[in-house]
């Protein structure tokens, strides 16, 4: 095959791979792929015996596309090797690099800052809490005063709106802002293992960030970096140990973070453990930490009393990949961190009071809503293994699913009457739009966006946001299968899964990894099953089966029953 023919074939296959049925080449190839798949399915289904089910192959919907990737790599030059991660990014329209003229337009520093009126100067201590190595820091805290029963503090959200609102008098002016157009196109920052990007997030050796805004903004000029003056939207509260609070208002401020702390730093302080930090002695001497933790825990308890859902500890999976593409996994329990509760509860508090302020003043906005719910089965299940596998997807909602809307609605899962998002304006378009609308209103008592404009953005975020976020989840699922395949090649057979049953109508079943309980593999039993085999499968609920084969291209799994 000539180079020209190879290039043409790769172009056709890539079009089918990325665009599926929307590709003009789809009808020409789909029948051939169906024939290949059917032949493969017939062979795989013959693995099982007549009376006793031993092995079973479960194929994901990626089987056909896996064949196409193999074909493309077979005829492409070595330096044009295609991966599933490339495919995920192309399907979602993810762009790694910003145009040069946009980078050139970013200001080098903040101006009109009165350093004699910094918010943190009236407080005890100002800091951030994030995962180790985080660079796009959106939120910080200033401790103002405290006693044994309460704490007064300011919650700072970096004021990214100040970058856009200068010389802006209408929403149309904003639509002509090149950087704003980029944020609308990208919708969210994406954090994916193994993706090519201009920046590496050191919180995980292979976690790459494809930011919603250039790193010159998200990780430098507007990130709450310690020692640097930053414009902020500041929310001031007094929080009591009984879970009640007073909201003292919203103000536009400037503040300097004294330290960027990690969750581990704060948990070590709370648990009186030694930790590595240049100012460890000073941090330990502050005696507000326990009051802060207790008050935030009380906020959580109060929300639960208002109907919020309490989630069990969930595993946080990190993927590590070395220079030889060998994958290893690290699992930790996220919700065990007291510091995580501090950040979560303060974020919910800010978002809920923002929602109430915006609704009260009839400012068009977007709400993260969740209708009242009913549990599919009792939440407090007696079997700890069953509780471990329980997820939010196991909750049945009586009046519809969650979403984003311009209509003021409550959020029953969080347990608050109104809930907007504006605590991560560096990372999410939702938060940025809410902050721009809020800050503009605080300044001139007028609304920049109309209800119809907010409704348009709510629909955009719902559709495009999910498409972008699928890149993260799909990449994790793919690397999980690659990891299992590498383990099997090494002769490691200790990776078991829980078989969640068989759907006779669609021949589907779900495998959930025991050690990584929030990750599951759902697929179709190859070729379907009949007779006694179906009866056997329907009786199998939550039993452990062993993985004997994992295909990183087709994402199919062969399992062995006990």
TrEMBL record:
Organism of derivation: Acrasis kona
Stretches assigned to the RNB domain: 112-444
One GO CC term on file: P-body
Entries under InterPro entries matching the protein: NA-bd_OB-fold (IPR012340), RNase_II/R (IPR001900), RNR_Ribonuclease (IPR050180)
GO MF annotation list: 3'-5'-RNA exonuclease activity; RNA binding
The protein's name: RNB domain-containing protein
GO biological process, one term: mRNA catabolic process
